[in-house]
Write a structure and sequence with these properties.
The chain has helices at residues 3-7, 26-37, 49-61, 76-90, 114-142, 163-183, 201-204, 226-237; strands at 17-21, 41-45, 65-68, 95-98, 145-150, 188-195, 247-250. With 256 residues, it is an alpha/beta fold. The chain is globular, with a radius of gyration of 18 Å.
Length: 256
């Protein structure tokens, strides 16, 4: 087989080490289970150990492999410990999916407190930075790897009463595209996946002071489902190594 032919082959995830943040539920859980079904060992990370253990159990019942490493992405020391644990247990990180995120919607920017702003930006933008900083050196050393940042269509469009969330996702997009240029020399590919409204606990969470869901007026059955995002992640990271997808924009087929 020639070098060109080898590079044109889809990449197998069998025995790869994949780290997924926000893996305790929703999109993160769906991505984790999909990666495990394809043969990856999935490192599940989020703050809630009990929820992570439930995801691990589900993966193992489906004959997959997963380990639980709780982490607070807003705490640099916790993220550094995560990186050291992955290095100690596996010696490498083949796939990183930065999925964890929080929202602040239904509230005009002028009514947002600095604490609310910081919570969103620290989780949605600073968090991925810290995780990349902790894990990407292993990819650089291996001269291979894939980083997927789960962004949002809110990172490409105005979002009235959701400025903090939109700002965090616009920022994540800029981080993604810049990082891709920095790391491609090492054979590392970086992609932003930006879904619209997804049918998860995040979309169903209450807006401040209203008690209403984020997309309460939408039909959940027509919204993007977590498994749709997971399928897109798999499609992107198994692409032949000679090219990569910079960005994926996801919308529901029928408007909910």
């Amino acid at each position: 087989m020639t070098h060109t032919e080898n590079q044109a082959q889809p990449i197998s995830l069998k025995d790869r080490i994949a780290v997924v943040t926000g893996a305790a539920r929703g999109i993160g859980e769906a991505i984790s289970r999909a990666l495990a079904r394809e043969g990856a060992t999935v490192v599940l990370t989020a703050r809630n150990r009990e929820q992570l253990e439930a995801v691990k159990t589900a993966i193992e019942k489906d004959s997959g492999r997963a380990v639980v490493l709780p982490c607070d992405l807003t705490d640099p020391a916790s993220v550094e410990a995560l990186g050291k644990s992955v290095a100690a247990q596996f010696g490498r990180c083949d796939v990183l999916v930065n999925n964890a995120g929080v929202g602040l919607l239904g509230k005009p920017l002028v009514d947002c407190t600095p604490e609310e702003w910081d919570r969103v930006l620290q989780t949605n933008l600073r968090g991925p930075f810290l995780v990349i900083r902790a894990l990407a050196p292993m990819m650089i050393a291996a001269r291979s790897g894939y980083i997927v940042n789960i962004s949002s269509l809110a990172g490409r469009n105005p979002l009235p009463k959701g400025a903090a969330y939109a700002a965090s996702k616009w920022g994540l997009n800029g981080l993604t595209y810049s990082l891709a240029e920095e790391l491609r020399q090492y054979g590392i590919r970086v992609t932003a996946i930006a879904p619209g409204s997804v049918n998860t606990h995040f979309s169903a969470s209450a807006n401040p002071g209203t008690g209403k869901g984020m997309w309460q007026e939408k039909d959940p059955s027509k919204m993007i489902q977590p498994d749709d995002v997971a399928a897109t992640v798999l499609h992107v990271i198994t692409q032949p190594a000679n090219a990569f997808v910079s960005e994926v924009l996801m919308r529901p087929t029928v408007k909910p």
